[in-house]
Amino acid sequence: MATSQTKDLIIVGGGIAGTCLAIEAQKKGMNILLVDSFGQNHSSTVASGLFNPITGRKFVTTWKAVEVFETLHDFYPRIEKEQGTRFFHSLPLVRLFPNVKASNDWDSSKPNPFISDDPYELPSYFDEGYGGINVEKGGYLNTISFLEAGRQMIGKNNVLEDEVLEPKDLVLEKNSVRWKDITSRKIVFCEGPGVRQNPFFQWLPFSLTKGELLEIETEFDLEPVIVTKRVFMFPIGKRTALLGATYDREDLELRRTLKARDYLEDRFKLFFRESYNIKHHRVGIRPTVSDRRPIVGRHPKHEQILILNGLGSKGVSLGPFIAQILVDHLSEGKLIPEEVNITRFFTFFEG
Ligand SMILES: Cc1cc2nc3c(=O)[nH]c(=O)nc-3n(C[C@H](O)[C@H](O)[C@H](O)COP(=O)(O)OP(=O)(O)OC[C@H]3O[C@@H](n4cnc5c(N)ncnc54)[C@H](O)[C@@H]3O)c2cc1C
């Protein structure tokens, strides 16, 4: 239990979103309490942890990629350094064209800070097919190790583990909120897919997406490179790699499916020449929003209640950036960009 009963911020949810927020808020001197029920539906521990600035079928540069990638390449290594641990892995990343059309459509004359002019090198166990592009600033985060290091950094007196904060137990006061014997100026819900159960935010257009991925094992050593061609593969050990991922908006049950395994394997075999074994099959739910942008900001009626959610399939890259936006807003009154501000959905609120 926290020693102080007065807080600047209660943060509900200790996935990537809540952990990044807690770290950034403490950096600004805020007195915080992180409350997390380490539930089944914890997408941050299922995630493969990939960060890649060039995504989607059309090979587009992701939203605010320059700022987002600058922030993440500063944020995670800083925590590694402070905690004396390792979870952030920058790796070469090759995006292979899925077909001849994609290769023909690719305009290599357009300058892009994330594409290297240097030719990529692929180990011989990959089939390069129609060729591809050499992407810079990619890599992966060992999310479980990051969350552990994050908890250490936040400090155990500031974290309530295995505890559910029921929104109905909150008492709203004039400029604060009370939960049990703790009074806080603000509360921020970072519940990931758990937002669906939160009566304060049920009106938001979340459109959750189930994802499945495979952990595979080879009989030979793997080279440190991420390769994507409709699906991605990258090594997380000498002879183990992650292969993912699926996107399903219809079936949101937390169970592994043969359909997903076949989907991943069929695509993988198009560019991987060797045999392998499947070691694990993971499944989780991503907190995705209908317009595919995060949601940050204050509840339309209760200004002491806020949300940071909707990191979708890009929690690793967006987490530190969005957390900084919210902390700058709370501490310095800086504006939250319209594209991610909860205000864009206020017309849906009927309270
Ligand atoms: C299969 C799969 C692969 C993925 N791969 C990648 C990838 O390669 N790269 C990437 O960037 N992203 C990836 N993602 C997406 C990534 O997992 C999410 O963007 C990110 O984890 C979301 O983090 P979050 O903190 O918002 O939610 P979560 O990780 O779900 O955390 C929410 C936490 O809040 C807790 N909680 C909820 N309600 C309450 C409450 N009332 N009281 C207390 N605690 C509460 C939950 O128990 C949970 O611990 C993947 C997701 C899946 C499913």
Write up what this structure looks like:
The chain is α+β, with helices and mostly antiparallel strands and 351 residues long. It folds into two domains: 6-45 and 144-205 and 291-348, FAD/NAD(P)-binding domain; 92-137 and 209-286, D-Amino Acid Oxidase, subunit A, domain 2 (D-Amino Acid Oxidase, Chain A, domain 2, 2-Layer Sandwich), CATH 3.30.9.10. The protein is built from seven helices and 20 strands. The strands form four sheets. Strands 1, 2, 10, 11, 12, 13, 19 and 20 form an eight-stranded mixed beta sheet that branches. β12 (177-179) and β13 form a beta hairpin. The longest helix is centred in the first third of the chain and has 19 residues, at 65-83. The mean pLDDT is 95. The chain binds flavin-adenine dinucleotide. Flavin-adenine dinucleotide is lined by residues 12-18, 35-39, 41-44, 46-51, 164-165, 190-194, 211-213, 244-245, 282, 284-287, 309, 311-317.
What are the main properties of this structure?
2 domains; 7 helices; single chain; globular; FAD/NAD(P)-binding domain; alpha+beta; 351 residues; binds flavin-adenine dinucleotide; 7-stranded mixed sheet; D-Amino Acid Oxidase, Chain A, domain 2; 8-stranded mixed sheet
Shape descriptor: globular
Give the ligands present: flavin-adenine dinucleotide
Number of strands: 20
Mean pLDDT: 95
How many separate domains make up the residues? 2
Under CATH at level 1, the class of the largest domain stands as: Alpha Beta
CATH architecture group name of the largest domain: 3-Layer(bba) Sandwich
Any low-confidence stretches, pLDDT <50, length ≥5? none
Major sheet characteristics? 8 strands, mixed
Instruction: Name the quaternary structure.
Output: single chain
Portion in strands:
25-35%
Helix share, percent: 10-25%
Quickly count the helices: 7
Decide which structural class fits the backbone: alpha+beta
Order of helices and strands: EHEHEEEHEEHEEHEEEEEEEEHEEEH
